[in-house]
TrEMBL record:
<dbReference type="Pfam" id="PF09723">
    <property type="entry name" value="Zn_ribbon_8"/>
</dbReference>
<feature type="domain" description="Putative regulatory protein FmdB zinc ribbon">
    <location>
        <begin position="1"/>
        <end position="41"/>
    </location>
</feature>
<protein>
    <submittedName>
        <fullName>Zinc ribbon domain-containing protein</fullName>
    </submittedName>
</protein>
<dbReference type="InterPro" id="IPR013429">
    <property type="entry name" value="Regulatory_FmdB_Zinc_ribbon"/>
</dbReference>
């Protein structure tokens, strides 16, 4: 069973074991027996953290499940994509599918979470080696 934090108005913070079904219910204070509400404790270092650092930590937590492996080829490809998107927004015609960017046809390795490499091709019916 998990340990939850509760706060008594007279005696302060205390910890009690409770089932997950009982997590939202108040708990009796061990000193006075009054029912006390459950509180969520936030570490003080999180509250004092700069917004930029907090944002970076949030981004890192999200990246645990979707890592981006930064390589020279990846950064070059991203810069070309950004330049292409910027140029596309400027002309207003909206039809850039007839002339694909040649850099996207290059064979690239995608690194999987287990460390293996996958070489996707322009032909999805082909099996990569």
């Amino acid at each position: 069973m998990p340990v939850y934090d509760y706060k008594c108005n007279e005696h302060g913070l205390f910890h009690e074991l409770a089932s997950m079904e009982q997590a939202a219910m108040p708990c009796a204070c061990p000193s006075c027996g009054k029912l006390s509400a459950r509180v969520i404790m936030i570490p003080p270092e999180v509250l004092a953290m700069s917004p930029a650092r907090r944002q970076a930590m949030t981004k890192n937590e999200k990246a645990v499940h979707q890592p981006i492996f930064s390589t020279v080829d990846y950064r070059e490809d991203q810069a070309q994509r950004r330049a292409h998107e910027a140029a596309r927004k400027g002309c207003g015609c909206g039809d850039h599918t007839a002339h694909p960017d040649r850099s996207s046809l290059r064979q690239k390795a995608i690194y999987m979470a287990d460390g293996s490499k996958v070489f996707p091709s322009q032909r999805p019916w082909m099996i990569s080696h």
